[in-house]
Design goal:
The structure holds two protein chains of two kinds. By secondary structure, chain A is an alpha+beta fold. Chain A has one domain: Heat Shock Protein 90 (2-Layer Sandwich). Chain A contains five helices and five strands; from the N terminus they run βααββαααββ. Chain A is globular and about 40 Å long. Chain A starts with a strand and ends with a strand. Chain B is of the alpha/beta class. Chain B has a single domain, classed as Udp-n-acetylmuramoylalanyl-d-glutamate--2,6- Diaminopimelate Ligase, Chain: A, domain 1 (3-Layer(aba) Sandwich). Helices cover 43% and strands 17% of the residues of chain B. Chain B has five helices and five strands; from the N terminus they run αββαβαβαβα. In chain B, helix 4 links the parallel strand 4 and strand 5. In chain B, helix 2 packs parallel to helix 3. The N and C termini of chain B lie close together (12 Å). The relative contact order of chain B is 0.24. Chains A and B meet through helix 1, helix 2 and helix 5 of A and helix 2 and helix 3 of B. Bound molecules: adenosine-5'-diphosphate and magnesium ion (MG). Magnesium ion binds next to helix 2 of chain A.
Chain lengths: 142, 108
């Protein structure tokens, strides 16, 4: 499709200060493109949580956002430690974040649950010692 | 309610941004994931978190303003980010609870 849009971001794992930047840029673009506030909010929450997870748990990674006629698709790919027990990680409040990270306000253990809640589909492909790829879709046709 | 009116009533300090806009609803809390999903557009967000990540969440949620309780100070890079993203940041020596009570009184 000729009117697909792609955004690519390299998410820096060293830098807590820029954490959330990719989400802020995507939000701005979606706004310029005139998407409804509800869609923008859901994309913002899901992408922010995924982006933060790559920074605090996986030493950074790549974020790709694609907009086509039917979906906004967010793919977050890292080569971090992987998630040993996905159903445990999906539980609200479960977090392995270190104390120093919690002191910054992260580590509520609500990231993955929120990503699932605010998207229409979420797939987690993870292998311990190899990395994690999360694909989230938000449907555009009501 | 207007932010400037709120500033006047509560003797708030304007740390960054403009107060010539209104807010509608309040969220109080410090955990970023919680704030991310509960701060609604145009809300006033009361917190004691003062690092740069607060500015990203305020920007993403389109909060009307961030109100820092207990006189916590924005770290310099957060202040810079607030200016850059045009986020209004206010501050007060009062605790989160005291601020909520006072704002609740005005609202009723
Ligand atoms: N990209 C990732 N790589 C490795 N582990 C992850 C990743 N994302 C999440 N996790 C694991 O899943 C847990 C729960 O994630 P989340 O719900 O976002 O909570 P939080 O980030 O607050 O800890 C994390 O504490 C971490 O152990
Ligand atoms: Mg998380």
């Amino acid at each position: 499709m000729s009117n697909n849009l792609n955004f690519h971001f390299n998410v820096d794992g060293e830098n807590f200060s820029s954490a959330g930047e990719a989400s802020v840029v995507v939000k701005k673009k979606l706004r310029q493109l005139g998407f409804p506030p509800d869609i923008i909010r859901r994309v913002s929450i899901a992408m922010y949580e995924g982006e933060i997870n790559m920074v605090i748990h996986a030493n950074g990674g790549d974020a790709d956002v694609t907009v086509d006629d039917d979906y906004i698709t967010i793919v977050l790919k890292d080569t971090g430690p992987g998630i040993p027990d996905v159903s445990l990680a999906m539980q609200e409040g479960y977090s392995t974040a270190r104390e120093s990270i919690r002191a910054l306000g992260f580590g509520a253990g609500m990231g993955l649950p929120n990503m699932k809640k605010y998207t229409d589909s979420m797939e987690i492909d993870t292998t311990v010692g190899v990395g994690t790829t999360i694909t989230m879709k938000i449907a555009l046709n009501k | 309610m207007n932010l400037s009116e709120l500033c006047e009533k509560l003797s708030l300090t304007v740390v960054a941004g403009d107060t010539g806009k209104t807010f509608d609803g309040v969220y109080a809390g410090d955990l970023l994931s919680r704030a991310m999903s509960h701060v609604e557009a145009d809300n006033l967000w009361i917190t004691i978190m003062s690092n740069i990540n607060v500015i990203a969440v305020a920007s993403l949620t389109e909060a009307s303003a961030v109100l820092l309780a207990e006189d916590v100070e924005l770290v310099p890079e957060a202040l810079e980010a607030a200016r850059d993203k045009e986020i209004t940041v206010l501050s007060s020596p009062l605790t989160v609870y005291e601020l909520c009570v006072k704002i609740g009184e005005f609202a009723s």
